[in-house]
Amino acid sequence: xxxxxxxxxxxxxxxxxxxxxxxxxxxxxxxxxxxxxxxxxxxxxxxxxxxxxxxxxxxxxxxxxxxxxxxxxxxxxxxxxxxxxxxx
Length: 88
Hints:
Elements: E1 5-10, E2 13-18, E3 23-27, E4 36-39, E5 46-50, E6 59-63, E7 71-74, E8 84-87
């Protein structure tokens, strides 16, 4: 199944919304490796532009505002059994 995400401005950050379920990404708690989950309440994420020499297009870190925690997609191997999203 293809999941479509929409990123929209909210205050000084951006929401990340699942178009199919009309839910937003948030975290259970603000700590290292906290699980990310879907909620009906929008939250603002901070998008920080980073320079990656190998990439032509802009790259961004998605962070929880005012913290060192970053959104990490642990999906490098598409055949992996565990597909987790976490804040790092």
